[in-house]
Specification:
1082 residues, alpha+beta, nine-stranded mixed sheet, 39 helices, 28 strands, disordered N terminus
Amino acid sequence: MSSSSMRQLDLEACPTTKDFVLNHEDEHHQQPLENESDPFDIAHTKNAPHKTLRRWRQAALVLNASRRFRYTLDLKKEEEKEQRRRMIRAHAQVIRAALLFKLAGERQIVIGPIVADTIPSGDYAIGLEQLASMTRDHKLSSLQQYGGAKGLCKMLKTNLESGINGDEDDLIKRRNAFGANTYPQKKGRSFLRFLWEAWQDLTLIILIVAAVASLALGIKTEGPEEGWYDGASIAFAVILVIVVTAVSDYRQSLQFQNLNEEKQNIQLEVMRGGRIVKISIFDIVVGDVVPLRIGDQVPADGILITGHSLAIDESSMTGESKIVHKDHKAPFLMSGCKVADGVGTMLVTGVGINTEWGLLMASISEDTGEETPLQVRLNGVATFIGIVGLSVAVSVLAVLLGRYFTGNTRNSDGVVQFVKGKTKFSDAIDGVIKIVTIAVTIVVVAVPEGLPLAVTLTLAYSMRKMMADKALVRRLSACETMGSATTICSDKTGTLTLNQMTVVEAYVGRNKMNPPNDSSQLHFEVNSLLCEGVAQNSTGNVFVPKDGGDVEVSGSPTEKAILSWAVKLGMEFNVCRSQSKVLQIFPFNSEKKRGGVAVQRTDSKVHIHWKGAAEILLASCTGYIDSNFCLQPIDEAKDFFKAAIDDMAASSLRCVAIAYRSYELDKVPADEDSLDKWVLPEDDLILLAIVGIKDPCRPGVEDAVRICTEAGVKVRMVTGDNIHTAKAIALECGILGSHEDASELNIIEGRVFREYSEKERESIAKKITVMGRSSPSDKLLLVQALRKGGEVVAVTGDGTNDAPALREADIGLSMGIQGTEVAKESSDIIILDDNFASVVKVVRWGRSVYANIQKFIQFQLTVNVAALVINVVAAVSSGDVPLNAVQLLWVNLIMDTLGALALATEPPTDHLMHRSPVGRREPLITNIMWRNLLIQALYQVGVLLVLNFWGRSILHLNGEEREHATDVKNTMIFNAFVLCQIFNEFNARKPDEINVFSGITKNRLFMGIVGFTFVLQIILIEFAGKFMSTVRLNWKLWLASMAIAFVSWPLAAVGKLVPVPETPLSVYLVKPFRRWRTRQNT
């Protein structure tokens, strides 16, 4: 689990609602997701307790634990991490010194040397150690000694207002003097480590031992020239399996590593050279001035320059989930913490391993482990098949040993292998080793060790491809859960719309400005008040280049739209800000839908400016100023303003009101503590303006919504905007089909929804299509109500207050551009371009993951069933097996590693979006898969057993020497069997479509693997006869093998015409067991 995920667990305060889904036998009956009696039935691993996760691990039949559990959560490491965190807090200085010493020895110190100055040196008047010790130990006396934030800025050659210069030379000097904001990453597993883990498989170790024994006995009895073939061929086959497995696992590991690096690369804003620039968190340097807003991560250690109601959640470092308020008495900020409330700016004083966060990150390895529901279920399937395979192998071993020692086993030339009292001891041991080798190889083939790992393979592939589709997966399980999503609760702004906002309508007084940015229509004093309110009541910034270039406006899209409008009205941002002093700030609050600021002007007048949702702010106004700067009572004009708001909202405009009020200076709290706690008055406001902001719908959103609807996924819009704006956008996007759909049942306001009882919310939630004027708590209530009603809910969110809803949802989708760090860390997937069309692509990939795993299961079980039945029947009837150990190992390689690569990496198709969502309780092996599997397995078993018993006469080998005829027959069986698997790989691509070749040219990896397998099979038969215990086949037998394999294609096509019952086969199989268990319990 990543450190960010770990921090998220600390932050979680909201209890999760227990999941409910539809039962197969009764679609209207609800049942809890977890089945207490089945350890592999964990339908939701997102917040699963460690006890549940430990339970399924103990229940799984595993041949190679280090490989099988590689990508699951390391429960032991999780406990160690918490201890390490507490230790770092207590002994940061000692750990840092030890780490520096270790890094110096390994020459791993990153981006320039870290100078351990204790006295001022170089270009700066303060050294690294002085800064580090002041910040680490929160030495307020040292900070005061340096002259506070201003004095420290001078020492670090930083400007409090405009930040550092930020040119390349300046950045290099700072990195050399104070280090970079990176930390040495723990090295990932090397390829040799993967090789070591791949051969930890118990069965492979037994085969290696058997190969060594066979080699020794062979050389002793047959001489070094001929005797080494049997043992060496088994050893070579085992080594090949180990190498191919290790290469596949290593490639997956590198993919996860790259994704983790992407997750850690947070983008943030800093002030450099007077302008706000966006940089990577790794590019932060000491001396940077960083603005902080709700939901941001503190990117480095630092001190507060200015702050208003700034509250920091330090739980990620201290482990205590309490909010700490920051001011000039407590100005120290710790890297890795989150801004819980307020706004501020900080001066960076420590980066990289000179911070406690850096030390923590350098001392723990990034753990990608996290099980997914599908992975757990597949472990259950693998365990069941493994037990069957193990039973078969033990039976085969007993039968073969019994036949061998009773003299019923003959060589290919007809000679009895064991005669009591005559056969040499070494020959008897050699015979027993061969029998044990066959039995162990059956276990290798029968236990589908690669089945659970195929999930990891397909997830790794999907995650890499999803990055190209602008989706960064933070939690593996979200990939597959998205395939089950039945509803998407989407934000409007920036997700369904472009987030490119412009003011297109403006009312000042009762006068509608046309055009909206024509300042000549305004009285000078009105314009002055508007500019003051817009400039001071904003977290955005306006930068005017000295060379006279275009004005640069930064901030949130709404802020940018209003600032740009004010600039066109003649606002000089920096001048406006310098003419008044900020006393207190009330940051924009998504619950109250407004934000305010109190300022003291140069003439000592106090103005309180508010900006927010038009109809909500209008309710707090008692008057308005007309365009001639005359104060008018609002009572008579309220209907006019409400009608203006409704008209703008019906045109899908976001309506924002700007208001202010005067305040007596002597009523403003005088001391700093009281000022910080001062609640800005929200009544008796005077309306200055109402603006309508246009945010056009994203191109392609209507198509994306239609695709979702056809795929059985209902799209719901949840927005903080006016209900009329929401309705207009919903109609434009196709979420509401027509005006007739826009009934009271479908459209609701957040406050109305929250007033219902829990039961009422559950019944109403399913009908809701649009929720307007919703707060984050309304979104959470909607998610909880939908999940209780059996829906699998995906929800989008970008604000800090969306975090509870993102965590509560089955899949939390945060926005990469507008999303805060808190929202991103609470989410499962980050939508990098904030586009709803990308959310739909994630649904496609989610369904593709499930579909690909099912293809692989169908393919693998066909091989398992056929190989086991052929060898068991042959062993019981004749005492010999047509498929020997080396051949079975080759089949296992095709089936496990190459088959998984070929089928688990199929790209998603449009066909996937014409189905209903995959039910989370739906059996992994559907009736369609059972039909396909049984048809192919029965065909293969039937043909190959006919060849085994009557092959010599069918192939006209009766006239041949007995030994040669047996070898040709067994080679033919092996060749036909492998070719059947290659042809069946095509069938597995499309389990429910007759045309299995559609889109095949797009998957080059599939074609490459099939081609590679076929070429290798030719080489093995024609040139590696002694290794494989085969003989060369003539062209007629090759054609016959191809014909046998080819029949599987038309057979599959005809088989798909056979209807299957809708009730899953597993229901019929489980019913007797459930009845028995009920009787036992009663």
